[in-house]
Every structure is written in structure tokens, then in C-alpha cells.
Amino acid sequence: AMSTSPSRQKYWLPIGLIVLAAAVLRVVYLREYHGLLDWQLLTVDNYYHLNWAGDIAAGNILGDTTYFRAPFYVWCLAAIYAVTGISVMASRILGLLIGLLSIFMTFKIGERVFGRGVGLAAALVQTVYPVVIYFEAELLLDPLFMVLLQLTVFHFLDWLDTHGKARLLLTGLFLALACITRPTALIVLPILAGFVLAHSKNRPRTARDLAVM
């Protein structure tokens, strides 16, 4: 245990520093943003998300109208509002926290597919990319949608290596959450199903794997 501890620290230190730098950068951004008149200026989708989530948090869970947006991101906002009340600050912080998770997943996927150096470089690019920082804080579903797709891909890559049912179950779970965040994620399903068909060795196992996912 004593001999493996330094190697584990060496493994986690670079990505830990990148995520810490991302958090600091985003805190500075929020602080500067909070001083601008634009802080309370919500436009179309983000204004709709704020008010719909507030309605859910107030107890109107099923609603009384036709909604034109998929609900999962708004449910996440509503869960926050149930504790904090309707809050633009809480909403923006949620987006930035989701962004930090996305940076970590960028590292893990990049490392798994292309190697550790590429994973760290990709995470660093995402850390400082201005467009990403901006949209994370705008009460929009895109950061959540992206991280759910990243989690889908990560667990599916694990399944390709292990063929474990748990990994395929998690693949299906995160893809399902992505679909109720933005339904266009459904296009990923036949692609993953094709990989399952290509990697399964016999028909009963293929049917089981597809059913699990």
C-alpha cells in the first residue's frame, strides 16, 4: 500500500490541478458576471427553464400546459429551487458544477481512447475555452446533455473491454437521461446497438445485452 500510494497521487495530481484551475476560473467569471446588468437578463430558453422549474418546485409537478422542452434539466433546477428558492445564482452554479464533471469526463474518455497525455490536453482546452464557460452558466440544458453523453460513452467503452452487464446497464441509464434532456440523443441508440451486435459472440447473449441496455 505504501508503494502504490505515490503512484496514485502522481496519477490524480495533474487532472486534480486542472479541475481546480477550472473551478477558480469559473468562480472569477461568476463574480465578474454578477456585477453586470446582464446577470438577470434571461432571454427565451433560459427564462422558460427558470419559470418552469420554479413552477415544479412550488408543487405543480405535472403542469397544466404543453411543454416544448424535454424535462430532465428543468427537474434538476427544480430540485435546487426546492431548497434555495428560485435563484439565478444557484442555477448558474449548478451549470458550472456540471461543467467541472464534464472536464473530468473529457480527461477519462481521452485517456482511455488516445492516452493520458491527450486526455489531459483535452481537459485543459475545455477548462479555458470561453464558449464552454459562458454556456455552462446560462441556465441551458447543453452542459448537462453533454456530460450525460460523456457518461454514456465512458461506460460503453468499459463494456467493450469487460462485457459486464453493469456497465451496459449504466450505458442505458445515462443515455436514457440524455434522451429526456434532449431527445436527439436517441440517434445514439442504434449506433450502440450495432456495436453490441458486432461484439457479442452468440445470439442469446446478444439478446440479453440489448435488453439490458
How many beta-strand elements?
0
- Please compute the radius of gyration using only Cα atoms: 20 Å
Distance between the termini: 37 Å
Structural class: mainly alpha
Low-confidence stretches: none
Strand content: under 5%
Would you kindly provide a brief summary of this structure?
With 213 residues, the protein is mainly alpha-helical. 76% of the residues lie in helices and 0% in strands. It is flat and about 60 Å long.
Notes on the structure:
- The structure is a single chain.
- With 213 residues, the protein is mainly alpha-helical.
- The protein contains 10 helices and no strands.
- The longest helix is centred in the first third of the chain and has 31 residues, at 4-34.
- It is flat and about 60 Å long.
- The mean pLDDT is 91.
Please write out the topology.
Blueprint: H1 4-34, H2 45-57, H3 72-84, H4 88-114, H5 116-128, H6 130-136, H7 142-162, H8 165-179, H9 188-199, H10 203-212
Helix pairs in contact: 1-4, 1-5, 2-3, 4-5, 4-6, 4-7, 7-8
List descriptors:
0% strand; 213 residues; single chain; mainly alpha
